[in-house]
């Protein structure tokens, strides 16, 4: 199983993650390498723990994988948590993720409708007989010579849904070793003028899989909300290098 390399990762202040706040909601741009909720041992820093120090009644309304960056909703009171949960359950929350995948893939409203079985211990599989319904719509946004930037719109919210659905299209997210996605190295894309210090081991441009929760749209009691989260530094850097050396 893939592990995040967060030895050099410095946890940010929770206040610095907030992109919107009112009396009921907090919306953050979650950094990578931070879990949304407590793990089983309860011994690592996570968004819920950071949020409760900021606002004692805060609850995480949904979750992102530890390595996934982007928009995360937190309720400041039980009633808001209930209302947001209903929107998710009724599939009325529009979420858009961006992913960088290996290969050139032309997706134009491609619907991948394949049931997912949660096998426990963060393992899932495509299982037409026993899996729960899962659908994701994919659109290619930007093409490079060896990679594609893709918009992913999950209709359902199964664990690892975007990741495994892309893998079924032979379009694994770069760096997603669990689904056979390979990391991107500068030496791969910069053919000329690439040098390294002798004895130094080259590190991938991104030390995680390239998936970012980019937009979210929903309404609570007639009030519309729409948020967009900028790419974190590692995702933006990979795109910039692809533009420079793989266009």
For the record, the count of structural domains works out to: 1
Shape descriptor reads globular
Give the structural class.
alpha+beta
How would you spell out the order of helices and strands? HEEHEEHEEEEEEHHEEH
Arithmetic mean of pLDDT: 93
What ranges have pLDDT less than 50 throughout 5 or more consecutive residues?
A: 1-8
CATH topology: Pseudouridine synthase
Protein name: RluA family pseudouridine synthase
GO biological process, one term: enzyme-directed rRNA pseudouridine synthesis
GO molecular function: catalytic activity, acting on RNA; pseudouridine synthase activity; RNA binding
Organism: Sphingobacterium phlebotomi
How do the strands and helices of this protein lay out in sequence?
Layout: H1 14-17, E1 18-21, E2 25-30, H2 47-54, E3 59-60, E4 69-75, H3 78-89, E5 94-102, E6 110-113, E7 116-120, E8 123-126, E9 135-143, E10 147-154, H4 161-168, H5 186-189, E11 211-220, E12 223-228, H6 233-245
